[in-house]
Amino acid sequence: MPILTTTCTRRRAGNDAPARAAARRARPAFTLLETALATVILGTGVLAIVQAQQYFYHQNAWSTQTSTATFIASELRELLHRMPRHDPITGLDAWGPETGEAGPEDYDDLDDFDGSDSAGTTWEAPWLGEATGPIDSRGRVILDMQGWSQTIEVVNVEPMSIWTELGDGTSDMVRVTVTIFYQGEFDAEQDEVTSLTWISRR
Fold first, then answer.
1. Rounded CA gap, 187 and 54, in Å?
2. Following DSSP, what letter does each residue of 160-186 receive, concatenated?
3. pTM of this prediction exceeds 0.90
4. How do beta strands 148-158 and 174-182 pair?
5. First and final CA of the chain: distance in angstroms?
6. Of 16, 21, 29, 68, which has the fewest beta carbons less than 10 angstroms from its beta carbon?
């Protein structure tokens, strides 16, 4: 009996082998076309995620720059708000910094900030070199502001038309414009981030 049982088992195993081979051949598999389509779909999804992350990054960076620029402009607005339009002694006869006024900490009226050549004044913090600005509400340099710059323009305007510019010292109405720029370390040129304009009535 043991010999017969062993022989029957071997025969069954031999008879099942072709069936198992046929089952393996009949098992479904991915075709080349299906694999290519899956790769395209997966790649498109990954690319969409990366682009979304880049978009959010740029939006966040721009929001941060806008907040910083608004802060810098507000500091200048605070500095200039309390100043008269012209020097209390020389009045309209002198435009720009008076003798002995070497920088923003010495300036005591708005037309001083238009510069000695009436072309405005710029304070900046280059990536390389000494920083002259941006300045705060006390006229002091704000530290660690590489790439940022402030430009101030002071002009006389027609009292009945504030966008009509007049010659220096020819009107009691003064328009002040503060423009904030930023230039990245590897940027070819600077970009205007924000601008603030107001009329001084003092």
1. 18
2. TEEEEEE-TTS-S-EEEEEEEEE--TT
3. no
4. antiparallel
5. 123
6. 29
Is the backbone peptide bond immediately before 134 cis, with ω within 30 degrees of 0? Answer: yes
**Residue in the block written with tokens 């940027």:** 187
Over the stretch 86-135, which tens digit does the pLDDT of each residue have?
A: 887 877 778 889 888 888 888 989 999 998 888 899 999 999 989 998 99
Taking only the tens place, the pLDDT of each residue in 33-86 is 878 888 888 888 888 788 777 766 666 677 888 999 999 999 999 999 888 888
Closest CA to 108 of 126, 93, 88: 88
Cα(69)–Cα(182) distance, integer angstroms: 8
* One-letter amino acid of 105: E
Closest CA relative to residue 81, chosen from 124, 113, 117: 113
